[in-house]
Amino acid sequence: MNIYLQDGTVIDFEDNKPAFWHTASHILAQAVKNLYPNISLAIGPAIDNGFYYDFDADKHFSDEELSLIEAEMKKIVKAKYPLEKFSLPKSEALELMKNEPYKLELINELPEDVEITFYKQGDFVDLCAGPHLSNTKQVEAFKLLSCAGAYWRGNEKNKMLYRIYGTAFPKKAMLTEYLTELEEAKKRDHNKLGRELKLFATDEAVGQGLPLLMPKGAKIIQILQRWIEDLEEEHGYVLTKTPSMAKNDLYKISGHWSHYKDGMFIMGDEEKDDEVIALRPMTCPFQFAIYKQDQHSYRDLPIRYAETATLARNESSGEMHGLIRVRQFTLADGHIICTPEQLEEEFKNVVDLIQYIMKTIGIDKDISYRFSKWSPNSKGKYIDNPEAWENTQSIMKNILDHLKLNYKEADDEAAFYGPKLDIQFKNVHGKEDTIITVQIDFALAERFNMSYIDANGEKKIPYIIHRSSLGCYERTLAMLIEKYAGAFPTWLAPVAVKVLPISDKYADYAADVCKALKSKKILVEVDHRAEKIGYKIREARNERIPYILVVGADEMENKTVSVRSRQKGDEGVQDLTAFVNRVANEIATKFNYHDHITNTFTAKK
């Protein structure tokens, strides 16, 4: 669908959504200023699925107030105001925005000799670089979705502002379709569904960003963890177990103290000569300390360390979200120490293992790859060695190209010690998160004085690959909740089978059925409640149980079970032994029905 930019250029909506949504954000800002003249404006960009605008208001905007703002926005759209761009020198720009403190802060950061651009629609003017649509009338359909707190510039030390989120489309039918998809996405939101299914909970007394994994959620994590640890052992990794904290001396050697200190939980005070201890935000320096316990030959390499590590990072309160971003998490962490000649093969093996894991858990078609590089303009973020950066990035790019990965490049997203391959996944709302990273490290081996003796008897510095095979278990659980809407494949389900005796008379046979299932390590529960069988079946369905077994007089007499499956519904009566073997095989092969159905919701990317 064609729309028109402010300069008259004809564009397609699908390819130019940011300009469309940015215009909608200006309409929102104008509406708020019309209704609440004393509220200060902050910023209002386009985002992945719409737009937002931040306001310095006295309180959260209520649903009633959002409705009033929408009504005012409709008047602005109907007025068909043209969006007019103009520029001013810095002094005049400051005078124009003298009553808008956040705009003044932005203007004051610009060079003295720059011309500063604004956009005007009706009597409303906003500091903006554009681009925008030609007039407000093109924003035919829009919806304000929510209001949330947001610190100015994302810094919790700054004032809390109020952010109104919205979306907009050229036609009402497009908005209706999107809102329908959004409602479906909300049903799958792990933060909502995970609590409803009793997979995890939070408690204010425990703290923000510290989720409590309930028995069913913990069971899924345990299934994944045991599988990953066994799989890594098969791939030549050796297990380590390292402390959850260390003196800051260790982090000073690695460089984390200077590059990552604000993200750490620290105990003690250097200024008082206390011993300073910090909870670990990563495992690498600990595993490097293990490597240094022995002198290694090139014949020992590669050495592959793996650890299921509990880590702690001091995320800002505004960043926390369910299981996606937390302050304590568990990582399938690992590091490979290798020679330069082994680097590409080891990197390839890491990617192969990740791809196998992603395919097995059923998300291989939902991931994307990002080659994250350093930026010479952000020297404070990175180890200052431009030659090493360029060399290592060239090596990684060659490896990624040899692997024929379809990746995007992103500047200023590297780790402070080297470039990385980020594996990205979008949640049901379209927000992209990193679930796994693989990094080539050119710096820390030298910092830790790690070495090996080569074939010529000379001491050499190894390369290090930082990698995770699954990533953060909590984030993976969130991703799987949304992927499967809580209906996990049988091998991942915290309860694979639920047995429903028709009455207490069949409790003993229900116990026999459980015993047969447990003998094959199948997770099973019995519902002994004195409820009607129809009610118990509905409850088990709501819990997304893969298999429901009803047992009564006929089943007890014939050693059978009446089977209801999540995929096929009522499957009728089956021999108990045959059913047990069927489910055991499904779990052993990690069979995934999701790969064989086509009606699964997929969030609009």
Q: What is the count of β-strands? A: 31
Q: Strand content of the residues, in percent?
A: 25-35%
Mean pLDDT over the residues: 91
Q: What is the share of helical residues?
A: 25-40%
Rg over CA atoms? 29 Å
**Uncertain regions spanning at least 5 consecutive residues:** 596-605
What characterizes the major β-sheet? Answer: 8 strands, mixed
What is the count of DSSP helices, taking H or I runs of 4+ residues?
18
Strand line-up of the largest beta sheet: 13-18-19-26-23-22-20-21
Oligomer, anyone? single chain
Shape: globular
What structural class is derived from the secondary structure elements? alpha+beta
| Terminal Cα span | 18 Å
Please provide a written account of the structure.
It contains 18 helices and 31 strands. The protein is an alpha+beta fold and 605 residues long. The strands form 8 sheets. An 8-stranded mixed sheet has the order 13-18-19-26-23-22-20-21. Strands 3, 4, 5, 9 and 10 form a 5-stranded antiparallel sheet that branches. A 5-stranded mixed sheet has the order 28-27-29-30-31, sandwiched between helices. Helix 1 (17-35) crosses helix 2 (63-78) and helix 6 (190-196) packs across helix 14 (473-484). The chain starts with a strand and ends in a 17-residue tail after the last helix.
